[in-house]
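hey can u run this one w/ adenosine-5'-diphosphate bound, need the structure tokens asap thx
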Amino acid sequence: MKIVILSKGPGNYSTQRLKEEAVKHGHEVRIVNYSECYVMVEQNKPVVRYRGEEIKDVDVIIPRIAASLTKYGSAVSRQFEMQGVFTTASSIAIARSRDKLRATQIMARAGVGIPKTAFARGTAEIDDVIEQVGGAPLIIKVARGTHGNGVVLAETKKAAQAVMQAFYVEGVSFLVQEFIAESAGTDIRAFVVGGKVVASMKRQSLDDDFRSNLHQGGEGTPVKLTDEERKTAQKAAKAMGLPICGVDMMRSKIGPLVLEVNASPGFGIEKVTNHNVAEKIIEYIEQNAKGRRRKDRVGA
Ligand SMILES: Nc1ncnc2c1ncn2[C@@H]1O[C@H](COP(=O)(O)OP(=O)(O)O)[C@@H](O)[C@H]1O
Ligand SMILES: [Mg+2]
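ok here u go:
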């Protein structure tokens, strides 16, 4: 098959691993920097161009879209979808996963455990919002943050009020969330391929940061999921319409709580767990790309 990996970083470990496994399986692979692609929108003729030529006859795209380029990257992916090209992550699901509020609403509806979350506009009822999520300490996170940037732990009610006011003034969309103290500094990443968990790791912050993101200096170790955790990850993936994704969960007193579902999860988990995740993705493509295109049924 002719596979295009949409990636801004051709040298990225994840991009390289996907390429390596695809080549090993006899596919023709090309890495395309989607941020340099341009799209011609004409009646009945969806074209994607790159460095002066049309990208043609693609069977499969693997979008690896950076959070900072969600809109553009998903528009380029969508253009391939318009041509009937199979994708490992639909443009609509990518966009959906990047909005933390939208994602939590969808997961809550599907019965996936999430931390108690509030969202509001305007400064009038700050105290009630704080009370509704259980009071301080609490977490405030910008709706489109990544890598732990934009996630604040407000230890006191005063701090929470100040942060919320600052965000309101700046017009930043944010969530207010119950602080899961028992899981502070750790979380679990479950890598889902074809709707099933294929690898999982625990991430631990190295200093006393409450954020466990590897980008904040967190460290990963392999972890065996409980049945409940595995089911929760799979349910979250399904709810978000992402057959391939990374589900982040916290272990809480009341069971697993999902923080987010990543549409372009990194492959660092391969080094931590010794599982060949990239090959699983290529196999998933081989089993699914020839069939009918999967319709997005999330409806939100
Ligand atoms: N409600 C919470 N309670 C405790 N820790 C949290 C909570 N939300 C996030 N964290 C910590 O902060 C990290 C980053 O939060 P997350 O929602 O995943 O944002 P990002 O998209 O920036 O990674 C998480 O991995 C977790 O360690
Ligand atoms: Mg995260």
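The chain has nine helices and 16 strands. anyway lmk if its weird
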